[in-house]
Specification:
Layout: H1 2-37, H2 40-44, H3 48-53, H4 55-67, E1 75-83, E2 89-98, E3 101-108, E4 112-117, E5 122-126, E6 132-136, H5 138-152, E7 161-167, E8 171-177, E9 183-187, H6 188-200, H7 208-219, H8 226-232
Length: about 230
């Protein structure tokens, strides 16, 4: 009798656990299906479990999946570790080499409300209840990435670089101001159409041979040894 009462008492929790388990399994299945169809694994070296359980890596994966659908002879590289003037390294999330230029992406898979502008050192991430987190200005952050690229690609004109700060769908860009040239701040959901339109209206500056040479130069800074990643951290 006691056992039956015990089972009846916990029956709702059992069904809830089953439902949550099914939702979790379906979500993992959908992520794996998308992961298996993408070139992200080979380009980034990130295994499936890291993509599925690390929010930052998952956001980068979603951005990569979107970019690889763009038409044209595009070359994509992820997690590029470049030396800085201070003798350290800076990590670039994604670089896309296109005939119209070098596209440098900073992925921010954040939640909450985002406030910031191009001139402030820090931006603010705010959550319900009033909790606030200070963030390094991602525009400045990506400018640092582009400067590191310029030191390696000395023959590329500064005007051929385009900076993209891409936020995920879990956040709301509440008050984000930007007037910087060649800098785009966008939610991932509207990036594809906006980026395709910009590429279509920009002049071609690289031929296929130049794109291949740029790719070969940068590829050695990707898929780096774990010791390099640890030192960067």
């Amino acid at each position: 009798m006691l056992i039956e009462q015990y089972l009846r008492a916990f029956q709702p929790f059992y069904f809830l656990a089953v439902i949550l388990g099914l939702v979790f399994t379906v979500r993992l299945g959908l992520i794996y299906f998308k992961y298996s169809k993408s070139a992200y694994s080979g380009v980034s070296g990130n295994h499936f479990l890291k993509v599925a359980f690390d929010k930052g890596v998952y956001g980068e994966f979603l951005l990569f999946s979107l970019l690889e659908k763009l038409p044209g002879n595009n070359k994509l590289l992820t997690n590029i570790y470049l030396p800085t003037k201070a003798g350290q390294t800076t990590e670039i999330d994604i670089v896309m080499l296109n005939s119209t230029g070098i596209y440098v992406f900073e992925s921010k898979n954040y939640g909450g409300w985002i406030f910031g502008d191009e001139s402030s050192k820090f931006w603010t991430q705010m959550f319900k209840g009033g909790k606030k987190i200070k963030l390094l200005n991602p525009i400045w952050q990506n400018q640092g990435h582009i400067k590191a690229l310029q030191r390696e690609l000395k023959d590329v004109s500064p005007g051929f670089y385009y900076s993209y700060i891409v936020f995920g769908e879990r956040c709301e860009l509440k008050k984000v101001l930007n007037s910087e040239v060649n800098v785009t701040i966008a939610k991932r959901s509207r990036l594809f159409a906006e980026l395709k339109n910009e590429i279509d209206n920009r002049p071609q500056v690289f031929d296929e041979n130049q794109i291949r040479q740029l790719f070969d130069t940068l590829r050695k800074f990707s898929l780096v040894d774990p010791a390099v990643k640890l030192e960067h951290i």
